[in-house]
Amino acid sequence: MIPETTAAPVRPFRSALYIPGSRPRAMEKAAGLDCDAIIFDLEDAVAPSEKDSARAGLLAALAGTDYGRRFRLVRINGPETPWAAADLAALASREGYDAVLVPKVSAPGDLDRVAAVLPGVPLWAMMETISGLFEARAIAAHPALAGMVMGTNDLQKEMGCRYRPDRLAMQTGLGLCLMAARERGLVILDGVYNAFGDMAGLEAECVQGRDMGFDGKTLIHPAQLDTANAVFAPSAAEIALAQRQIAAYDHAAAAGHGVAVLDGHIVENLHVVAARRVLGQAAAIAAMARSEAGQERLVR
Fold it and tell me: In 3-state terms, what secondary structure has residue 223?
């Protein structure tokens, strides 16, 4: 059954940082970084010769490191690769992670193969093939799916398009996945920005992704965290407007009216739903910050 609301979960996913499973020190440091999610990568970021050691290192990190409020995604190697079976077997204990990210999902059957080995484990899909974009709605409907991640580098390669700051060539594909995710109430994260030293370019792409409707941005470097967290969080002005919209609507409803007028704009119930979503996200971000501060005091 399709949810009545298209709102994504309130839990913040402003920033999701890729960490190679082959880098023990990076996995250790990630526990102290200001990211909403960590994508522990066993796929593209790990050389074939390091697959086994990376898998073992990741299991050790998940078992021995407290990642606090950070959502822990493990990106496995594709089901068709020689490393997939070992990846899935290693994750069968279901300990230390929140979900499994399946790369290069082109059809619901790609998720079936993983779900059969890891029943009950939430799955996320990398949307990075042309076939996957055309099948986005069917993929989003898979019963094990909880989220989508755009793989814009692979998508650019498959399409043979040039990179442009406005990502014109990829707009259709991004939109198809966004609509599919929203129809099912899934989380959906935008692709990476490769020039990790270009903060102005990163901010512009974050703003574009936020305005399109993405929940957050996948990142390749800790230096990108502050920008993504700031852009994908409600601003003080947005929070104030949401509060005023709700107050205006409640006042109008108490007077028997179905709509309100605020600053020359109509406020209907749909605007109130969006406003409550903004306030819910702001509250969740504030709660995470308080939790993090409390943990730091305990450590000291």
Answer: helix
